[in-house]
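Quick look at the format.
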Amino acid sequence: MALSMASFIGMSVGSREMAQNMSIRQVLFFRALVGLFVIAPFLPRLWPELRQMRSVGLHLTRNIVHFTAQYFWTIGVVMLPLASVFALEFTAPIWVAFFAWALLGEKLTKARLLANIGGFIGVLVIVRPGFEVVDPAAGLVLLAAVGYGLSLVLVKRLTRQNAPAVIVVWMILIQLPLGLAAALTDWRPVHAADTPWMLLAGAGALSAHFCMAQALRRLDASIVMPVDFMRVPLAAIAGYLIYGETVSFWVFLGAAIILTSNFQAMRAERRR
């Protein structure tokens, strides 16, 4: 989960830099294209499982949902401060807990509910709705959060029959043509100077989802996601160091609430 959080932040920085010269649809396409080159050496090893076409319909559904959510999320990355994007995105655990209960039959224990509630309160403290986040792009990020919540639960379901690496390969194979079809409707010239950002965004996306799938394979989805709340204060620090975005007292207060909620939930889960 720590590697996943770092990778997501790297992907967001790379995507924001790419969007300075490209359309957002191109950003999604090139992220997937870089991912294809990264996974290519591993395809022979994964081919025996890939050719079995396990849960291919579920892979398709998951990736259409995820691709749409990514599009909305990337708009937010370009238009909002990084901390605000990640904070709004973290309404997703509420949907994760709901979809995990509805689709996977996971238990909604008191500890998990309190962790999600505490984490969401921490996000509200950071964002302070009505005071800081007023951009219309915030609504798109909230829609992306619903999509991510459903997508993560579908990943959890896929791990029952698919290795995490295979889930990531299917993500690239499905989202690459989706990204190309979308990018061709709004294609702009590509500059060599954007190559490092393509590599960062593409490798970050691949690493983030691989690490997330590994975590989801080992833990219930409603345990994994409260830990991921830590991405919010980390994104605030990255935004400050790279873009000079202000890190206010509210970010640190929200982070303290998130940490406390997660710590208490982990203790309760270990006892259980």
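Next, a different chain entirely:
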Amino acid sequence: MLKVFIVDDEKYIRDELKYFLGKRDHIQIVGETGDGQEVMELVEALEPNLVFLDIQLQNMNGLLLARKILDLKNPPYVILATAYNEYAIQGFEINVADYMVKPFSEDRLKLAIDRIDKQKNNGHKETIETQEMDFHKLCVSQNNRFILIDIGEILYIESTNQGISVYARDEVYGCNYSLKELEERFKKKRFIRTHKSYIVNIDFIDEIIPWFNYTFKVKIKGKPDIEIPVSRNYLKKFKRIVGM
């Protein structure tokens, strides 16, 4: 059984999706909402296998929601939906399962569901774009432009309620990956997760400062006012990697 949750602030879109999906015997619609503020609570409560998610919700950024959903411990598949093709590259960068442009056709929806059924039956997830290469650049955004920067130029990465910020030597960029995805992407590079909200480039750690409850903070080269926490959840691995 494929449990589906639908997020779109247009009721007729939700009704159209329910009509098409209702033709598939193995699909169960477990919930729907047009309110972006309640999405995470409902996803965690209903535990769907698949979320249809509108990018352009009135009260929430759908791309930010997609990142939060995919950062869950056992995330569902996510299919992004929008009326505009221009958001496709951002969908690729988030690594969602599929990307559909409105208005939906029944054939296109069938293709998306068949693809997810195949992945689910095979016991693994694939994404709509590049399976991992040993890639030394990261796609980031600034002023509505997408830029490829060298990973070695990144000082640290921070997750906030507004999204992911990538701090390079002289610039700050946005990024559509979650920290969990970046941690996996950089696991063979010289980066380390120090906190639920931070990943740090080891080459730019200038000083490690003892903090309370046997934790630490790290200072970044060239950024004397920046102190990044090392929480207890990541302390053991951090100390092993830096040789403390």
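The helical segments are 11-21, 39-46, 62-70, 88-94, 106-122, 179-185, 232-242.

See the schema section for token definitions.
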